[in-house]
Each structure stands twice: as structure tokens, then as C-alpha cells.
Specification:
The chain has 391 residues and is an alpha/beta fold. Helices cover 48% and strands 15% of the residues.
């Protein structure tokens, strides 16, 4: 039987590449649900091509446009995040690709977990903000979580070869982003157009900025802690500019297993959708004779303080990851609007993390209230910074 897939955030980078995987294997996969935030035109186009039973446009002001465009297609159209949460629980959904951007992905992912769905997780903020809660719910409801991030997919694939042997360390690779070779003074004046020029990966704006600050890599450390039940001291970040080795697993005897491939998110997406099978994929394959050398460096925490903040949040536990994520979301949005400077992003996150928001044993309600409170606090910090910049 075909696997019936719900793609949350189908118009984003991961969503579009997921649909390309489905396009290559129409005999194995079919689309049941597509959702988008505001990209109504692309959502309509995708719906016409893949003919899902349902689509959701989260921005309710765009409902009329989408409904009118699809009224003759036999596709049901809904609006709002509540509709996404309801539809992912349907018996007609087998796999939920959680690729919505930011904290907004938490509620529908939790709904899908409680319905026992297979989760192909691309929304790292879900585990950053509520890792302990999400993993406990996944175990309770027997909902498998298969990682889609290239780094976590790589670790997952390496662990399949471990055959139960003890793992001592996870090595998460990082490209270093566009500013790896820049000095701190030059980075401080980096514009958003500079930060959006990632050397290896084609991603959405938010995650590309997170890659430039290395907050994205910090979030991946937190995500790895929950996915693979590893402490912070057993997770290492290494800068690997070529992005060929996606991550590595080290064992007690010092042996290291690495997963390699060209920088193409369709491979980890397809691996999650088809697991445990490997399918043909029309993508670029590695040519080892053309690779030349592969290089590795320790990350520079002074130039990229966001990475250190993620380790700090992981060590503190509780809702610290949620605090860090909420502040970062607001700060990155402000940076993309040219309201603050590059290092203001990590400064805002740092101030929020040292604030009075900490809850040692948060509930789901605590996570949502923390997100709202920190977002408001970070918005105030943005306003203050913007006012100083105008003087």
C-alpha cells in the first residue's frame, strides 16, 4: 500500500523537496494533506498537482483565495493552525512530515504524536523547545520519530550499523556558514544579504540566518540530545566546510562510523519516508576522485556565541531551550527586517536566557506560556536596540 503523507509546511524548502521525492515515487507515496502559512499561490499549485484530500492555509485571511481556486478540484480547504492539528490525526494519514518553521510546528507535531503517527521530523524547534515532553509523548503513544535533518539522519543511519554497541560520542558536522573565515569585526557589520548566501545548502531565510550565527548547529545539538538520549558532554560539533560528511558516531574502541553524501536534503527526506528501505533517487552522487581533501576545524565560540548559548541551555534543562528558541525567533525576524545587527541576535538570546523565565519541570502549558512571554520580552529588546541605532 502507498504511504499516505501529510506535509506540514509544503511550500518551504523541506516541503518542496519532500514533494519532489513523492514525485519520483508515485507508486509508493501519495499526498493526503498539504499546509502552508501564507504562500497561497504555491499551495494552490501543489494541490492541483498532487490532489490531496485536504489543504490548510494557516493565515485565515487567505482562506477565500485558496478555497475559490480549488473549489472545482474536489479538495477540502481549511484555515488556521487548529485545522492542521485536527487533520494530522486522521486515519487516512500514515506519515507526517513536520517541516513548519519555528515554534509553530510544536502543536501539530504533538497532535500527530498523540495520534500515533510516524513523524518525519524536520522542525528542530519542536525538540529544542519541548524535547523531554515530546519524547515522553512519543514513547507513550508509540509514535516513531524519524529525523529529517541531514545531521540527525546521518547519526540515525550510523546507529543502524552499531548493532546495539555502546556509543561514546556523537560528532555533528557544521559547514561554518558564510562567515567561517571572517573576523569578528567584519561579521558584526554583516548584512542580511550576506548572511543569506549559504555556501552549500539551499534553505529558507530563517534557517539560513540560524546557520550563519551557528544557532542552527546549537539547536541540532539540543535535538540530538533528545533524539539519541546523549548528554551534552558526549556531543561534539566539528566544522566541516565541504558538507560531505553529515555526522559521525564514535564507539568505545575509538572506531568512528560516518555517513557521507552530497549536500541534498532529498536523501534524508526520502530515507525517513521509505524507512527501512532505501530507494533510488535522482540526485548527484559522490565522486571520490573529484573530492580532493576534506577538512575539519573546531568551532570558534567567540565569533559564534550562539553555539555556546545552546550548550548552556542544554545544561540548564527545563524550559531553557524554549527560552532560547523564542528569543532567537524574534531576533532573527528583526534582523531580516534590517532592524538590528548580526550580533544583536545572540545578544538578545543571551539576555533572555539569563532572565527570569526558567521553569525546571515545565508542562506543555508552561512551554507555550514561556514562548509567549519570551517573545514579548525579546520584542522589547529589539525595539530598544532599534531606537539606539537611529540615534
Amino acid at each position: 500500500m502507498k504511504r499516505r503523507i501529510a506535509v506540514l509546511g509544503s511550500t518551504g524548502s523541506i516541503g518542496r523537496q519532500t514533494l519532489d521525492v513523492v514525485r519520483q515515487h508515485p507508486d509508493l507515496f501519495e499526498i493526503e494533506l498539504l499546509t502552508a502559512n501564507r504562500s497561497s499561490e504555491l499551495l494552490i499549485q501543489q494541490a492541483r498537482e498532487f490532489d490531496p484530500a485536504n489543504v490548510v492555509i494557516c493565515d485565515e485571511s487567505l482562506y477565500g483565495e485558496v478555497a475559490e481556486a480549488l473549489q472545482d478540484e474536489g479538495i477540502k480547504v481549511f484555515a488556521g493552525i487548529g485545522s492542521v492539528c485536527d487533520l494530522v490525526t486522521s486515519d487516512s494519514v500514515d506519515v507526517v512530515v513536520a517541516s513548519m518553521v519555528g515554534f509553530s510546528g510544536l502543536a501539530p507535531t504533538m497532535a500527530a504524536i498523540r495520534a500515533g503517527k510516524v513523524i518525519a521530523l524536520a522542525n528542530k524547534e519542536t525538540l529544542v523547545a519541548a524535547g523531554s515532553i515530546v519524547m515522553a509523548e512519543a514513547e507513550k503513544y508509540h509514535a516513531p520519530i524519524l529525523p529529517v535533518d541531514s545531521e540527525h539522519s546521518a547519526i540515525f543511519q550510523c546507529l543502524l550499523a552499531a548493532q546495539g554497541n555502546a556509543v561514546t560520542k556523537l560528532h555533528i558536522t557544521a559547514s561554518g556558514g558564510p562567515f567561517r573565515t571572517w573576523d569578528r569585526e567584519k561579521i558584526a557589520s554583516a548584512t542580511k544579504s550576506m548572511a543569506l548566501k549559504h555556501p552549500n545548502w539551499n534553505m529558507g531565510a530563517k534557517i539560513t540566518i540560524d546557520s550563519a550565527t551557528m544557532m542552527n548547529k546549537g539547536f541540532e545539538v539540543i535535538e540530538a540530545r533528545w533524539l539519541f538520549d546523549m548528554g551534552a558532554k558526549n556531543i561534539n560539533v566539528v566544522v566541516h566546510p565541504e558538507s560531505i560528511i553529515h555526522s559521525m558516531v564514535e564507539f568505545e574502541d575509538g572506531a568512528v562510523i560516518a555517513q557521507m553524501g552530497c549536500p541534498d536534503m532529498r536523501e534524508p527526506i526520502q530515507f525517513a519516508l521509505a524507512f527501512p528501505e532505501r530507494l533510488p533517487l535522482n540526485n548527484k552522487k559522490l565522486d571520490f576522485a573529484q573530492l580532493g581533501s576534506l577538512s575539519f576545524f573546531a568551532p570558534d565560540m567567540e565569533k559564534f556565541p550562539a553555539l555556546g548559548l545552546a550548550f548552556e541551555a542544554l545544561e540548564r534543562g527545563g524550559n531553557a531551550g524554549c527560552v532560547l528558541n523564542a528569543a532567537n525567533e524574534v531576533a532573527v525576524a528583526a534582523y531580516l527586517q534590517d532592524r538590528i545587527g548580526f550580533y544583536d541576535i545572540s545578544d538578545i538570546a543571551s539576555e533572555a536566557l539569563s532572565g527570569s523565565f526558567f521553569v525546571a519541570n515545565p508542562t506543555v502549558d508552561d512551554i507555550f506560556s514561556t514562548n509567549d512571554a519570551v517573545a514579548a520580552y525579546a520584542a522589547e529588546l529589539v525595539n530598544k536596540i532599534e531606537s539606539r541605532r537611529r540615534i
